[in-house]
Design goal:
Blueprint lengths: L24 E5 L13 H15 L3 E5 L11 E3 L8 H4 L6 H20 L6 E4 L5 H4 L8 E5 L5 H9 L6 E4 L2 H11 L3 E2 L18 E4 L8 H11 L3 E4 L5 H8 L7 E5 L3 H9 L3 E4 L9 H8 L4 E4 L13 E4 L4 H11 L4 H11 L2 H17 L4
Parallel strand pairs: 1-2, 1-4, 2-3, 4-5, 5-6, 6-7, 8-9, 8-11, 9-10, 11-12, 12-13
Helix pairs in contact: 7-11, 10-12
Protein name: Glycosyltransferase
GO molecular function: glycosyltransferase activity
Keywords: Glycosyltransferase, Transferase
């Protein structure tokens, strides 16, 4: 098991003595497959964009690792995603899909580059990727690395932690629920909710329809949101990228009609406008969602939330800002929708400001950075 770093709180050091009071050089690791640019492929890409923007605004020097096509105005530089041209024999190997090899090669090259440049180029690494190699190879670095745990402890990530020794990387989970899932694997870890810039998700006037946003995939359950909205007699608009063509053709397209509209994959400004003009936001994961960024976005827009009681979602909403439904239960969700639509938009916004704000996230992550940079490495 790796060591866990305890964050250094502001009361522990004199003002001006914290490492984060000075500009830091931070390598921020995202996905090698999905660019950090609008319209975002998912919540992880939106979060990394937000965090890079926040760090840059504070005067820190951010170098971003992400797929080609990522926004270049949110970072000082980019770490190249290296590709590999496989031989004909390798391409013919049915046991190793080419995309997995490309992803492996990208992170292997990245970590070797970071091990070589080390402290001469960066002060720390903040890993948001879902790949196992950054954790497994973190012991090669002469600078600290923080890994944000955005998922449950999948097998390859568990393996990476098992082979790490000493204080090679510290961890922060995106919810208490996710932290509990990781505890048998990584020990006690800190919790930092994913924050949003509430000024970019302004309060809207509400409306007469429901909204659902996210990736259109089975595990997000948009078909259940449609069924619940129909059961409650409320029109609904669906927004997000179609990641699973068959699922969309089988479960979403047949449900479209005068009361159900798919509005496409929207940029943040247009999505915020849509959510702000909605009476209620539906959040319908059919798995234990580690956090639920769409919940925070809706609340910031003043739009109450009706959601399945799963994963980290109950940590975000409270009785003033939303209602929870029994998982996978359309009738329960329809009742929650009706109740949530009558809640105060002011209270919903206040909940976002108290729990999900960028300000809170920045403060908590900088405390973690301080602890990493002042604790001796083993």
């Amino acid at each position: 098991m790796t060591g866990v770093l305890t964050p250094l709180r502001s009361s522990d050091v004199a003002t001006g003595d914290r490492p984060t009071d000075r500009p830091l050089r931070i390598a921020l690791l995202g996905s090698s497959s999905h660019p950090i640019s609008e319209p975002f492929a998912g919540g992880l890409e939106a979060h990394i964009h937000q965090w890079a923007t926040a760090l840059t605004a504070l005067g820190h020097e951010v170098t971003l690792f992400a797929a080609d096509g990522s926004a270049t105005d949110i970072a000082s530089g980019m770490l190249r995603v290296r590709t590999l041209e496989l031989s004909a024999i390798s391409k013919a190997d049915p046991t190793t899909p080419e995309h997995m090899v490309n992803e492996h090669h990208a992170y292997l090259s990245l970590m070797l580059e970071l091990a070589e440049t080390g402290g001469t180029t960066y002060d720390l690494v903040h890993n948001h990727s879902l790949h196992y190699l950054p954790i497994a190879m973190s012991r090669m670095l002469d600078i600290p690395m923080l890994t944000t745990l955005h998922t449950p402890p999948f097998a390859w990530l568990e393996s990476a932690i098992a082979v790490s020794r000493g204080i090679t990387t510290s961890f922060a989970a995106v919810s208490r629920y996710t932290a509990r899932q990781w505890e048998p694997v990584a020990g006690t870890v800190d919790v930092v909710f994913n924050g949003i810039a509430t000024d970019r998700w302004p309060v809207g006037p509400g409306g007469d329809h429901a909204v659902w946003s996210g990736r259109l995939v089975p595990e997000k359950g948009p078909h259940l949101a449609i069924d619940a909205a129909r059961a409650a007699g409320m029109p609904i608009r669906i927004a997000g990228p179609i990641w699973d063509d068959r699922y969309y053709a089988d479960e979403i397209a047949p449900r479209l009609g005068h009361d159900v509209e798919y509005v496409g994959h929207l940029h943040r400004r247009d999505l915020a406008d849509l959510v702000g003009r909605s009476a209620v936001a539906l959040v319908t994961p059919v798995w234990d969602e580690p956090y639920g960024l769409v919940v925070a976005e809706a609340l910031s827009c003043g739009t109450p939330v009706a959601a399945f009681d799963r994963g980290g979602i109950p940590e975000i909403i409270d009785p003033s800002s939303g209602r929870l439904a029994r998982p996978d239960d359309v009738a329960s969700l329809a009742a929650a929708l009706t109740q949530a639509a009558g809640l105060s938009r002011t209270d919903a916004r206040r909940r976002a400001e108290d729990v999900c704000s960028e300000t809170r996230m920045v403060d908590e992550y900088l405390h973690l950075y301080d602890g990493m940079l002042t604790r001796p490495r083993c």
